[in-house]
Amino acid sequence: MAGELNKLSDKRLRNLQGTPRQKIEFFADGAGLSAKLSKVGGISWVFTYRLVGAKLHRVTLGNYPDMSLKQARDTRDKCRSWLAEGKDPKMQFNLTMEESLKPVTVKEALVYWIDEYAMDNRANVERHKAQLERHIYPYIGNMALSDCETRYWLKCFDRIKRESPVAAGYIFQMCKQALKFCRVRRYAVSNWLDDLAIPDVGRKQRKRDRVLNDGELGQLWKFANNDELFSPYYSALLTILIVFGCRSQEARLSEWKEWDLEQWLWTVPKEHSKSGEKIIRPVPLQLREFITELNRHNKNSGYLLGVVKKSEAVSQTGRNMYKRLNHAEPWTLHDLRRSLATKLNELGIAPHVVEQLLGHTMPGVMAIYNRSQYLPEKLDALNKWIDRLEVLAGNHENVVLLSSRETA
After folding, report:
1. Euclidean distance between the first and final Cα of the chain, in Å?
2. Of the candidates 170, 176, 175, 187, which has an alpha carbon nearest to the alpha carbon of residue 136?
């Protein structure tokens, strides 16, 4: 076999090139590779092969000297590898050339991940889109993914890091997952982010352990509907978050079709749920009048809260709410969720009921075999929770508040 390979040399090719001929001739290099000489003296590389039970086939690989002898041999070896896998080298070669001539861009790869994965599996997909539109696409979106080296990605992440290190880490993690998804599905291949971790580009989000104490919860429940402190939108949002311990996006995106006002059930659809599973919560007795009134005002809009505000705006307002109540220690809207979980456990509510109210995925085999929604237990827990909030609110008559309606 060795004697059949590499019969040609650069010296011989240079001597053959440019020499006119009476007819087209082939000069074999071995293992299917030949130099094809045209009548005018041009040289092109040809790979000849035979499929099982079929005639001989030829595929033109390129022209000499644009494609060197070494490159031609490497391409021949690739063709032989395809043939060994039962693939037609001509078809595979043409596909490879098409990808090279029109490579997948960074934006196309990230959009592919959004469309094929994130839309069905990420509740905050709109946030992902906005972040990519702002921080990635304007700078490297049109670059070929294969050419977008680590240094180009790092320029984007460093730019984000100056404003928000946590956001830089979050967007990096998202992009890294997107590229892996594209690679696994053979849509496009890029390994430029593989050796990086979040600390290389930004900072991990700190795990919070803030739980509002009884005094803070009572005060917040008492003044959630205070017109001088909160606008109608944020009053309603606060009430929903305090009572249900839901994620802010579940309330922010909630539509009236999710609310059954006869059975008094709120069904969060899987597209709004972080776990990708629907969440069913009963509406406690003490909240039904509030929901009915909210429906009267906002029904025509189609949305629970009347409008859909951007997540960034809601988060920013939520981070400043503690100031309006003169609370010494900051808290966020997500801390209300942790507070509900902690207080329900203190009230003796079974952990699995609390987890179901929060919309967490049940652990182990319970997630597979136990499909119960525990609706009676959930309703009992929420009724007891509001009773507790009413008691806490009654203990805080004399408080000093900041009137900041203008910042709502």
Report:
1. 81
2. 175
Count, in order, helices (H) and strands (E) of the chain: 20, 7
- Alpha-carbon distance 266 to 284, whole Å? 11
pLDDT tens digits for range 11-56: 999 988 888 888 999 999 999 999 999 988 899 999 999 887 668 8
Place of tokens 């309330």: 251
- List the structure tokens of 321: 């709410």
SS3 282: strand
Neighbours of 86 (CB within 10 A): 8
> Which residues on adjacent β-strands are paired with residue 59?
47
Which residue is listed with tokens 């795990």? 207
Between the CA atoms of 394, 398, 399 and 405, what dihedral angle is there, to the nearest 10 degrees? 80
What SS3 string covers 182-193? HHHCCCCCCCCC
| Cα–Cα distance, 305 to 311 (Å, whole number) | 14
pLDDT (tens digit per residue) in 186-202: 788 899 999 999 999 98
pTM of the entire structure? 0.56
- Residue 380 in tokens: 């009992």
Strand 259-260 relative to strand 265-268: parallel, antiparallel, unpaired? antiparallel
